[in-house]
Amino acid sequence: MSGKKLSYEILLLRCIGCLLVAAVHAVIMTYRIHDPIPNEMYRLALNSIRTICSVGTPIFIFITEFLIAKNYKEDLPKQFISKRIKVLIPPYIAMGIIGSLYKVQESGLPFTAYNLGMQSLKNIFLADYNGYFIVIIIQFILIHYLFHYRLKKWPAKIILPASFLVNFAYLAFFNFVPPFGFSESTGNYIWYYLSWMPFFGWAFYFALGYYCGKHYDKFVETLKRNKWLVLAAPFVFGAVLLGTKMLGIPKVNTSKTIWYLFFMPSVTFLIFYLSNKLKSIPNFLVSVSDHSFGIYLTHAVIMRVFVLLYKPHFADAPAIVTFVLIYVTCVSLAMMLTNLLNKVPFGKYLVGPVRDNARTVKKQQTLDAPTVITAK
Questions:
Q1: How many whole angstroms from its chain centre is CA 219?
Q2: What is the Cα–Cα distance from 353 to 364, expressed in whole angstroms?
Q3: DSSP characters for 70-112?
Q4: What is the pLDDT of residues 233-257, one digit of tens each?
Q5: Which of 44, 56, 213, 356 has a CA that sits 20 to 30 A from residue 34's CA?
Q6: What are the CA-CA distances from residue 106 to residues 100, 328, 333, 353 (Å)?
Q7: pTM for the structure as a whole
Q8: Which residues make Cβ contacts (< 8 Å) with residue 68, sequence separation at least 6?
């Protein structure tokens, strides 16, 4: 397969994953403005959007390991760990400190140095904000580094089913077993964070990314041979996901439920299949992909500011209109902020770097364009 096709797949995956995560938070913020939402259709639509779009975070786990496995099939570079830590840790700490502002505000506590300091420590050491995905990614970077040479020897037919069973059993425990041995608030807190912070809750996505990246050509050919299954699976598993959500099986309302172990691969495989049919990719999608790290980190902060400004004046507006406004406005502002900060010294250490794929893709598309010869 060509490098161009691979870039299209990952660019689309990264772009879609980022936009899905932002949609989940836009739904949450809409409920903060309009809760309760009297219109049943709006409520059903918003809940469905949140359920489907929660697949975004597992997609990012897949992308991370897919790229590592695809790019480093033999030896890992000497700066494999340090290169990635330098990109991930500074924005994680910076946004953890910034996130303490809205966490203290939402708790109703005064803005004292103690409260801000304690919340900053919780954000950084307990990953108590939306930057938690960075901690999960770092875990898998370390795991890949430690087991790189063993992974090459372990067969997919054993590791994939084993990782699925481990992941399923781990999530099922926290999905269906109520907290015990603690007070209700403490137990819920422990259950909530244990369900997704340790790598066991994401092991299957890691293993799937690894073998899809390692056997990339075979993976893509398999998708082509099973066209109708690839096209139908997201709708089947999406219906199951929505149906079980409506029935409260389980009652967990996040991406850490067992059903995403089925839904996430089906969505990812569909994106891979469709991207291999593309001859070009819209510049906007490439740009979103390039800014995805910063959008992921900053959109939640911007949405909270939006809620504070919007709620006193437009709380009577239709909830679905509020959702669209929050989503479009805050994702756009997050993208602009990420771009702006990357133009100033040390800005990328606050929100993460902006990739430069847009220029490369544009150049490739220009080279691939047919030459038109006109008669004189």
A1: 22
A2: 22
A3: HH-SSPPPTTHHHHHHHHHHHHHHHHHHHHHHHHHHHHT----
A4: 999 999 999 999 999 888 888 888 9
A5: 56
A6: 10, 23, 22, 29
A7: 0.91
A8: 141, 144, 210, 213
